[in-house]
Design goal:
273 residues; six-stranded mixed beta sheet; 9 helices; 12 strands; globular; binds adenosine-5'-diphosphate; binds magnesium ion
Length: 273
Amino acid sequence: LVRAVAAVASSPAAGASFEVHGGAVEIHNVTKRFGTLRVLDDVSLTLAPGSVTALIGPSGSGKSTLLRSINHLERVDAGFIAIDGEPVGYRRVGDKLFELRKSEILKRRVDVGMVFQTFNLFPHLTALENVVEAPIEVRGRPRAEAEAEALELLARVGLSDKTDAFPRQLSGGQQQRVAIARALALKPKVLLFDEPTSALDPELVNEVLDVIEELARSGVTLVIVTHEIGFARRVADTVVFLEGGRIVEVGPPERVLEQPDHERTVRFLSKVL
Ligand code: ADP
Ligand code: MG
């Protein structure tokens, strides 16, 4: 397979050639800098459709930046990312890439759902309204249809009795489950979770992990940044250990978590386990 040519920020990818391997998410030689700090350093990774990837690593290692790059909330400085064969932030014409306009980037962003540590629900909207807002506003779905689907999604995350509650009337675990239903409502190809349980009281962690585990079996491609190593071991197909913006180790959970090749992985795991 042909290697892709890097897209460099100072001379955007127009003209760069482009080749994908058929993964749901393909990250090709991605580098991202903040000023002089190289936060992602030549990261390459292919995620198969329907796969579940756990992204682990110390604070500041670039995990959130990698997720944000997949969603094009960050613009990478070199390399490129493709979702379902389509380059993020670029349009493909033949084997060449051309940068997308802002409006087109926003349209494409619905392919990738994101769930944050801090839920980020609209505080003035009920659970149901939080879930139907984007399908109606972004996808232009008729309200009745969007509401029927939202009720199904809220049932799926165990919140049938909370559809009319406002976020302040819900526990952290319930708010996070609304956030998951909201992300699913746009029918994303890929769903990204950035430490979805880190802001929760310990007794609420499992109700959210259980919902994610159920999703993992449903065929949507998932990437989960987590410090819940037991959960990663049980649910992920692949564990990626990131440190200093580089992938140190990648492989099946039983190998990366139980027989890591690298001293740095061993050291990290000894701190979080
Ligand atoms: P992680 O999620 O693994 O904790 P991040 O991706 O949030 O790591 O951050 C990686 C590094 O990039 C950190 O050193 C962080 O301070 C820095 N960083 C993240 N976002 C920005 C930003 N917008 N501007 C400057 N530095 C940033
Ligand atoms: Mg982070």
